[in-house]
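Hey, sorry to bother you again with one of my protein questions. I've been puzzling over a protein and I'd love to understand its fold better. Take your time with it, there's no hurry, and the full record follows here:
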Amino acid sequence: MSHSTIKLDAMSQEMVDTMVDYEIAAQTCIRHLRTSDRAVVTPLWAKLGEEFRKDHNTHPSKPLSAREARKAFHSKNASFFFDLAPKPSRPLEHYIRMLFAAQGAMQLLALEKADHPQGREISRQSDVKVEEILRAGGLWDASKAHHVHQLLRTEPFNTTIRCRDQLSGDVVKYLVVDHGATALKGTFYELQDESGHLKTVTEEELDAMRLQ
C-alpha cells in the first residue's frame, strides 16, 4: 500500500535528514565491522563501549529539551563522524566510535521525535529515504535493517541457559527471547523463565547468573 508524502515544516524536514544521516553512518560502520576479524572487533567493541558510556554518564548543569540534548550530544561527538567514502587504512576504532555516536544520536532523536506532532511521519519518511539510498547502492537487506545488535550477537535466540537465581539460589532455566546492544545502554538480554515471566539483564548480570 502506497502512502502519500505529507509536507513537513523546515524543522521536521531537518529531523528526517538528520535521522537518515545517522542511519546511513551506522549501516556503513556495521557493514565494515561485519567483514572484519570478529576476534579483533569483539574486545575492541567492549573496551570502546565502556569508555563511551563512562564519557556520557554525566548530567547537564541545566535541564535540556530533547532537541537541545541531541544537538549537544552531536557537538560533543562531532569528531567521530567522518567522510563515508571507503578508506581501507582507517582503523577499526574509528568505525566503532562512529557507530556508537550514531546510535546515541538516534536514541536522542527518537526522544525528540516522540514529542513531535508529526513524529510518525518523520519516522516513515526517514525509513523510506534510508531504504532508497541503500537499495540504490545495492546494499539493502530487509532482514538486517535496523538490527544493529546482530553485529556481535553472542547468545543465539531461543537458546536455553541455566542460571542461579540471585534471591533463592535455585537453578532456573531461561529462554533467550531477545538481545540488544546500544551505545548508551550497553549489551542486554531479555530472558523468559519457565512460567513465562520476562526479565531484562545486562551482559555482566547474565555472566554472573549463568552456571558454567
User: Anything to note?
Assistant: DSSP finds six helices and four strands in the chain. Residues 88 and 111 are 35 Å apart (CA to CA). Helices lie at 10-34, 38-56, 66-76, 92-114, 119-136, 203-209.
